[in-house]
Write a structure and sequence with these properties.
With about 90 residues, the protein is of the alpha+beta class. A hairpin with a 4-residue loop joins strand 3 and strand 4. The model has no long low-confidence stretch (mean pLDDT about 80).
C-alpha cells in the first residue's frame, strides 16, 4: 500500500482492503479455484501466511473466489487450549 499525500492509502486496483488481500494472494499463487470434472464442481484452495490451508467446494467459479476471499480475510482465531481434566481432587487425607 502507498500512503497518499491527502491521507489514506492507495491499494492498486482494489476498491477495498479485502479485495487487495485477495489480489495479493492470487498473484503470489497461494489461492486457486479449479474445475473438478468428476464432481462437476469447483475446488477452491488457499494457503494462508501461517501455513494453514483452507479448501472446499463451490458450485460456480465466482462462488469459489468468494470463499477464498472469506478465508483470506478471516480474523485470526489463535489456538484453542483446553484445561486439564480432573479439576476436582480429593482433599489430602
Amino acid at each position: 500500500m502507498t500512503e497518499l499525500p491527502g491521507g489514506g492509502f492507495a491499494m492498486g486496483e482494489a476498491p477495498d482492503e479485502a479485495e487487495a488481500r485477495l489480489q495479493i494472494t492470487r498473484q503470489q499463487g497461494r489461492a486457486s479455484v479449479t474445475f473438478h470434472e468428476r464432481t462437476g464442481r469447483y475446488r477452491w484452495t488457499v494457503v494462508l501466511d501461517e501455513g494453514k490451508t483452507s479448501h472446499g467446494w463451490a458450485e460456480t467459479e465466482d462462488e469459489g473466489w468468494w470463499f477464498v476471499k472469506e478465508a483470506v480475510n478471516r480474523p485470526f482465531r489463535g489456538t484453542h487450549h483446553r484445561r486439564p481434566r480432573g479439576l476436582w481432587t480429593l482433599p489430602p487425607a
